[in-house]
Amino acid sequence: MSDNLTIQDIARTRSLLVVSDFDGTIAGFSKDPYQVPINQKSLKAIKDLSRLADTRVVILSGRHLEGLSQVLDLGAYDITTVGSHGSEDSSRPRTLTPGEREELERIHTELERVIDGIEGAYVEVKPFHRVLHYIRVSDPDAIAGIQARAADIDTRDLKVTKGKNIIEYSVSRATKGSWLREHISRTEPTGVIFIGDDTTDEHGFEMLADVPTALTVKVGEGETAAKTRIDSIDDVGIMLEELAYERQQHVEAKALGL
């Protein structure tokens, strides 16, 4: 754990914000994005946390909200879902402008040309993004060709983000970092934990790097601005399970005046 904050420290804060990425953090990967395995320890823990006083749980995903709802059934639990890296907030919806729609149609056409004739590659449609996927492409030369042609696209004012086997093009400038900044400013939690695995989560890690009441957790390998690191999705489940237990103990003790 971090030299500065531990799970026990975060659990004992007055007002806790728990934010987690979805894919690669509480769910594994699959060639079919709608058949990903969800870690059941993590799922139970975030549901348990959402029931506790002064505790807010958010799933902050790169998926669009409709797609996220197809793989993550949260039922009646009070858990906020935020999609498209912060562009879509289930609690504060917004719509595209005509200019944004036109730009998305243009980039979609360009991306279809990039992958024309390549088996396994496809373009995913999200409300604020178009996403080039090549996880199903097995030929390394074909992947290199996709990446090279994608690099030549006129992206204009689009935000381009490279992830694991994807390249994403967005008309929104929102990042996980900008969403966290706005949400924390508006809700003023006294403690924050943010967990993620991908390059897009680094925006959140960087935003929270100098926040002394925040614990940021990188899942897996790679350079990171997170304050601490764990190895795997299974470790996320163990950590969230511990957080839910410690938070429940704190909330119950506080209710009893202890």
UniProtKB/TrEMBL annotation:
PANTHER family: TREHALOSE 6-PHOSPHATE PHOSPHATASE (PTHR43768:SF3). It comes from the Bacteria. Its cofactor is Mg(2+). One of its GO terms (biological process) is trehalose biosynthetic process. GO terms for molecular function: metal ion binding; trehalose-phosphatase activity. This is Trehalose 6-phosphate phosphatase. Pathway: Glycan biosynthesis; trehalose biosynthesis. InterPro entries: HAD-like_sf, HAD_sf, OTSB-like, Trehalose_PPase. Removes the phosphate from trehalose 6-phosphate to produce free trehalose. The lineage of its organism: Bacteria, Bacillati, Actinomycetota, Actinomycetes, Mycobacteriales. Keywords: Hydrolase, Magnesium, Metal-binding. The keyword Magnesium applies.
